[in-house]
Amino acid sequence: MDKVTSFLKDSWEEVQHNVTWPKFGDLQSSSTLVLIASLIFALLVGGIDFLFENALNLFYQSF
Length: 63
What we know:
The chain is mainly α. The protein has helices at 2-17, 24-61.
């Protein structure tokens, strides 16, 4: 149990004193970039799905 306690104390000290945390503005800009990229990707996949669905419907209706 002493090893676990020592590990947790050392880990907490590492997080408090040696980790460089990003500024809030950097996190905001990164989050905005991820949100925009996700929306563009979702629209692209949705558009491709729409095109394939309509193309297959036209193909199946021709028989």
